[in-house]
Structures are given as structure tokens and as C-alpha cells.
Amino acid sequence: MDARYPLIDSLLGTLLLFLLFSRLGAAKQEPCLTCRSLVNNFIKGIEKTAGQNFGGGNTAWEEEKLAKYEKSETRLLEVIENACDNSDYECNKMLEQNEEHLETWWFKRPKDPINLFDWLCMDTLKLCCPEGTWGPDCAPCPGSADQPCNGRGKCNGAGTRAGTGTCDCHPSYGGPLCSDCAVGYYEEAKNESHLVCSECHRSCSKCLGPGEDQCALCKKGWMLHDMKCIDIDECGTIDRCKSNQYCLNTEGSYECRDCDKSCIGCMGAGVGPM
């Protein structure tokens, strides 16, 4: 850029950054979500333009004009113009690429009323799947159709043509179907349909109950002894810090802190005895 025109350079730089971040933000949008948003705005536009520009009278003239407007291309264009925000790159791109599909749906709608989302996003563009299914072939999510992942998690990619189809379990649950307790939790109560997982003691990564003496496996920085996790004093094993620092043991870890500025080396905080 020419240094003689700082204002122009600044504006160009701002514009480039805006375009860059707009594209980066757009790239993160899931196509099915974009399609759903487009359809929702399209339907809102239909509702907004219902009876538009008419006084609501009952004259034959108004009824005839209203009937023509309801199915007209003029109304369709009004709906399309407001189907996407100006800043929504992905929505506008999808709208531009699929105006013909929307026109097809619009003009066949009075004779064959169908759900626009199902017709456009699932059947025509094949961007979405029915709930409880995922991926290119809309495969069933793990678990039952009415309660994927046992109701303790979400099926990754559910309702879209993307994702992994695996269960993303809610906190405290784990396993392929979220039917187990997660690491750091234990079974407090369980039957065929109900599972309650509660957190282990802060020192345990696996446990049999909530107490500190019910550990089966310790977290890093702790050592198991008689079903109890004991904090390891990392500062008492090897020299872990720099020469102008001292080691402070903490629960499950340690910290290196700077010596006082008057010290060349130290064993702890402060300047020491005079």
C-alpha cells in the first residue's frame, strides 16, 4: 500500500479484515443450520406479507386483488429480498444458488402444500436429516430413535448430513451410549432407566464412592495409599525451578515463584533472616 495515502490504506486494511473475518465466520456455519435459517426467514416473510397493502375490507375488488397478490411473483420477490441479513454471507450464497428451487416451491404450493424445510433442506438439497439421524445417509443415532444416547447426551451431527454419529455425553456421563459414569464420577444410583453419577473426591480419577478413602485411581500429582490419594511433594524430589526461583508445593502440583530481588537464590518467599 502507498504510504502517501494513510486514510485510504487504513480503509482498505479495514475492508480486507472485514472480508477475511466474514469468510472465516461463514466457514464455521453448518450448511443445514444455514438452510434452516433461510427457510425460517422465508416463512416469516410469507407471514409478514399476508394481506399486505390491503385495508382488510370485504369488497369483491379487494378480495380479487388479494388473491392475485397472495400467489404472485411480486410477493415472492418481496419475501426473497428479506430472507437473509446483508451480513450473512452463507445465507445469501445459498439463497442465490437456490432461487429457482424456491420459485418452484412457491408456485406449486397452492396446489400441493408441503413443508418447505423438508422439501428444500432434506429432500432437494440433502443438507439435513430427520431428527435422530445423522450423516450423508441419515443413519440412525446410537440408542433408541426417541431417546438417542439414552437421553444423557447428544448425537454428534444429529439432524444434519455431517458429524460423527457418536454420543457427546453430558457432564458426568460416558461410554458409547452414555450409559456409564464419566472418569472422575461414580455410580450413586442405577437401574434400567435411571443412572445418577456423582463426582469423586478431588484427588481421585476413579473411585467407589465420594470419600477421600474410596479412591481406585489417583489424578496426576497424587499417589494411592490404602484407597486414599496422597499429595506428592514435587518440590522434595528434584530441582524443578530456576536458580532465582523457589518451589512451592500445591495440591496435585507445584509452582515456581521468583525469589526476592535481593536474593541470588532462595528456599522460599521473603528476604530471610538478617
UniProtKB/TrEMBL annotation:
Keywords: Disulfide bond, EGF-like domain, Signal. InterPro entries: EGF, EGF-like_Ca-bd_dom, EGF_Ca-bd_CS, Furin_repeat, Growth_fac_rcpt_cys_sf, LE_dom. It comes from the Eukaryota. Residues 137-179 form the EGF-like domain. Residues 1-27 form the signal peptide. Disulfide bonds join C169-C178. Coiled coil: none annotated. Belongs to the CRELD family. This is EGF-like domain-containing protein. It comes from Ranitomeya imitator (mimic poison frog).
